[in-house]
Amino acid sequence: MSGEAMFSDARLMHLATLAGIEPGYWDIAGAWHDLGPETARALLAAMKIDAAGAAALEHSIVELETRPWRRALPPVIVAEEKQPIFLICHLPAHVEIKNMPWFIVLESGETITGALNGATAVAEARHDKLGMMRYRLELRADLPLGYHTLQLDLPPATPLPLIIAPAACYLPAEAETGARRWGIAAHLYALRGAHDAGIGDFTDLTQLIEQAAETGAATVGLNPLHALFFGSPKDASPYAPSSRLFLNPLYLDVGAPAPPPAAQIDYSAVSRAKRSCFERDFADFHPNADFERFCREYGAALQGFATFEALCDHFGSHLWTTWPPAYQDCKSAAVAEFRDRHRQHLDFHAYLQWRCHQQMTSAAARADARLTLGLYGDLALSVSAYGADAWLGRELYAAAVELGAPADDFNPKGQTWGVVAPRPHALYDGAYASFIALMRANMRYVRALRLDHVMGLERLFWVPAGMSANHGAYVRYPADDLLRIVALESQRQGCVIIGEDLGTVTPDFRRRLAEKKILSYRVLYFEKSDHRFQPPEEYPALAMACLSTHDLPTVKGYWQGADLALKRALHLFASEHLSALAEAQRAADKAALITALQEAHLLPGEVDAQEMSPALALALHRFVARAAAWLMMVQIDDLTGETEQLNLPGTAFEHANWRRRLAVDLDTLFGDDWAQEVLAAVAAERAAVMPRPLPATA
Question: In angstroms, rounded to a whole number, what is the distance separating the alpha carbons of residues 510 and 269?
Fold first, then answer.
């Protein structure tokens, strides 16, 4: 490589670093992968940063390096209660800042005033031929938690959002000293009720809550209930939704006729049948005070979502990038005119969200009354590029990028997830308003919330469109600010936070999660080292423990190697050698689990490790139930003996993900002797676990 080319690549990497792109990453095997020039240029282009040529590259470097100097104050300050409040400002050198007055309007409306005690000059520069100073200011004020506004006596007189957050997320007092809790995790669409219309619904959820409560469960865990694509039922992933602010109307119980029992959900048939019922009910509906109040509370967000849904119906597609150009911009005159001309159609979609709110509120109230911890919800990492949130917030997401993950033991080719990447600078420049709204919407009905891929608060793996996951790179996010906002909303809503921290999560970030009292997510399959499974008493107290998840094989599927066979059939292993290694590792893991169960005196005698027996499944549940973790979840799929996992990562339409229903209905399940034996054993084991103080780190 010539010296000129090396200099150009070095400048490209410098620009990438300024933009928040990391210079490389360590994979799960400990190998380092450098950021390549092709990936760097693609990700910069997705961020709308021009690096197409030498001149453009240098211009972009100057733009990013001088960006902070072009605004006097940051867009937002997020500070922690009872800690000093620091802010950085950039002012012309001649501006006198000593003793500058300030006033703060608290969230309550009260105003407090003061003056800066001093300012520390930390840098100087020339910008637009003007001498500039960078000051570090300390604001001394004992402020309450909440969203306040700071005003300094500076031109222009722009209010500065000032967020004061607690030191940690909410945890009930009993988490420190009380019994270890447990619950039942389910995907709502997979539930079978006596009268459902081919898909689990909010009535089935209420039934599950009642039956779980009778067994002593403290919570019922759910998949994300986000709005998907009404007009495109095949797009069924709850983790690639249209909107994370609204609910999926297919979960409404509207008395649609029950189809013949089937192993999988026919989303097209369910959607047609339910839409017919929705339209019938809406034709007889007259807006009432409760509906009007709901519309006022959700305001512009609801109107925007309803507009998107109506446009999808109008154009016969949710692929808004294929709509006429005038309708691709949600703020265009054409969209405003459409909204005015189709008010009844917008009201129909607002009505569906109101009905969802009614039924979900009813289920949540029942959970609060019957379950110690209420409902346990799930927040997807991001949204589809073709959904309502992406259309309404185009400036918030990077184009031509998918989120994913590098290769790991379960996904040797890496993953792309079909969701878009939030732009870190857009979050910050918007004073995190979209993130705050997201947290509030997803804590509304639940008392515990799982954050999918919680590492995304610090960094996300961006994969340029058209490239494989091997060509991705990590992009940094403002983790300190985001974690503080999560803590504030968690405390306000009384909502426990669980961080899904599987995969390549750094020890330092796990420490920060623990400091914020965010529960770690511990899956039996991964809790091993040196060919030994970790004894349950060694699990961290600040954690949620489980046997498996929707992205991993069920207990029965794991033991039979069903997931490995499916991956081979779909050519998901990069080579025959890797396939053979996976088979050998699984055999070793099964043997190690048998040893762990025998050492725990849960499986006396000789057991055929090749077969999954009721005794072995019971022993595995009892093993995890002994975990020191504050919360333990039982997968409902393991109670019904499912072999097929709900989702096979690395596939889209090659495999019928998100469609498999439970083998039996809820009444049959909770009347089954073996299922009752498992749940009773879990309850007894959890009651016997000695409470352990929650440490500062997990």
Answer: 44
Q: Which CATH number fits domain 174-688: 3.30.460.90, 3.30.420.270, 3.20.20.80, 3.30.450.40?
A: 3.20.20.80
426 Cβ contact partners less than 8 Å away, ≥ 6 residues apart: 395, 396, 397
Question: What residue has token string 């007259």?
Answer: 286
Residues 474, 404: Cα–Cα separation, whole Å = 10
Domain boundaries, the chain: 3-68, 82-165, 174-688
**What's the pLDDT tens digit per position in 64-103?**
999 988 888 999 999 999 998 988 998 888 888 878 889 9
Burial 638-669 (b: 16+ CB within 10 A, else e): bbbbbbbbbbbbbeeeebbbbbbbbebbbeeb
Q: Which two tokens stand for residue 539?
A: 């699990």
Q: What are residue 152's DSSP bridge partners?
A: 102
Q: How is 507-571 classified by DSSP, letter by letter? A: HHHHHHHHHTTPBEEEEGGG-EETTEEPPGGGS-SSEEEES--TTS--HHHHHHTHHHHHHHHTT
CB 85 within 8 A of CB 139: yes
Residues contacting residue 172 through CB under 8 Å, at least 6 positions apart: 178, 373, 496
Q: Residue type at 115?
A: A
Q: How far apart are CA 332 and CA 563, in angstroms?
A: 48
What's the pLDDT score for residue 697?
41
Q: How far apart are CA 97 and CA 95, in angstroms?
A: 6
Query: Considering Cα of 439, then 445, then 446, then 449, what sign does the dihedral take?
Result: negative
Q: In what order do the strands lie in the sheet with 101-105?
A: 77-80, 160-165, 146-152, 101-105, 111-115
Distance CA 453, CA 495 (A): 18
pLDDT-wise least confident of 224-233, 332-341, 485-494, 684-693: 684-693
Return d(Cα 405, Cα 460) in angstroms, integer.
Answer: 8
Output the pTM of the full model.
Answer: 0.95
Residue pLDDT, tens place only, 545-603: 999 999 999 999 999 999 999 999 999 888 899 899 999 999 999 999 999 999 999 98
- Domain 82-165 in CATH 1.25.40? The answer is no
